[in-house]
């Protein structure tokens, strides 16, 4: 019996098929009726898709059932350490390193003792025109989880 394709191998096939078919991540998300950032993360291996979503995207991209099977499996979440040095990804690490302590203080001041969930969570991405150069707008929207003793 063939082993199940790894999430990274499935992601590589998805990326290649997306590029070769000239599709954007937004077009794929629209076809699935799912949020853009979530869809992109799922297709890169960070979230499981339903079997229906996995087959739908594989039909769209001309990929086989082995890829769909992998896309519907539970992932091991997190970033490959080699990716952490990518300049775009590192800027996020840098931003959290600089602003994370202030955001933590502000969350505690506004909500009390607790954290922002990364499970009950939404993230959005947008481009905002600016005369000084377009801006990248990232919105994290997580449920507040209070510590209960």
Strand content: 15-25%
Share of helix, binned: 40-55%
Number of domains: 2
Can you write the helix and strand succession as a string? HHHHHHEE
* CATH fold category name of the largest domain: Cyanate Lyase, Chain: A, domain 2
Condensed summary:
With 149 residues, the protein is α+β, with helices and mostly antiparallel strands. Helix content is 49%, strand content 18%.
Describe this entry's structure for a reader.
The chain has 149 residues and is an alpha+beta fold. The chain folds into two domains: 7-71, lambda repressor-like DNA-binding domains (434 Repressor (Amino-terminal Domain), Orthogonal Bundle); 81-146, Cyanate Lyase, Chain: A, domain 2. The protein contains six helices and two strands, in the order ααααααββ. The protein has a two-stranded antiparallel ribbon. Helix 2 (25-32) packs across helix 3 and helix 4 (51-61) packs across helix 5. The radius of gyration is 18 Å and the shape is globular. The relative contact order is 0.11. Its EC number is 4.2.1.104. Keywords: Lyase. It catalyses: cyanate + hydrogencarbonate + 3 H(+) = NH4(+) + 2 CO2. It comes from Nocardia speluncae.
List the keywords.
single chain; 149 residues; alpha+beta; 434 Repressor (Amino-terminal Domain); Cyanate Lyase, Chain: A, domain 2; 2 domains; two-stranded antiparallel ribbon; 2 strands; globular
Summarize the helices and strands and which ones pair or pack.
Layout: H1 7-20, H2 25-32, H3 36-43, H4 51-61, H5 65-71, H6 87-111, E1 114-128, E2 135-146
Antiparallel strand pairs: 1-2
Helix pairs in contact: 1-5, 2-3, 4-5
């Amino acid at each position: 019996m063939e082993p199940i394709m790894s999430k990274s191998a499935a992601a590589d096939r998805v990326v290649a098929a997306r590029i070769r078919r000239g599709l954007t991540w937004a077009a794929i998300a629209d076809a699935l009726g799912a949020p853009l950032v979530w869809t992109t993360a799922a297709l890169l291996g960070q979230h499981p898709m339903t079997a229906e979503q996995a087959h739908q995207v594989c039909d769209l991209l001309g990929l086989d059932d082995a890829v769909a099977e992998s896309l519907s499996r539970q992932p091991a979440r997190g970033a490959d350490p080699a990716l952490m040095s990518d300049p775009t990804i590192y800027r996020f690490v840098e931003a959290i390193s600089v602003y994370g302590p202030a955001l933590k203080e502000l969350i505690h001041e506004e909500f009390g003792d607790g954290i922002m969930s990364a499970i009950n969570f939404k993230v959005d991405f947008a481009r905002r025109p600016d005369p000084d150069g377009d801006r990248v707008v990232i919105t994290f929207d997580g449920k507040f989880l209070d510590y209960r003793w």
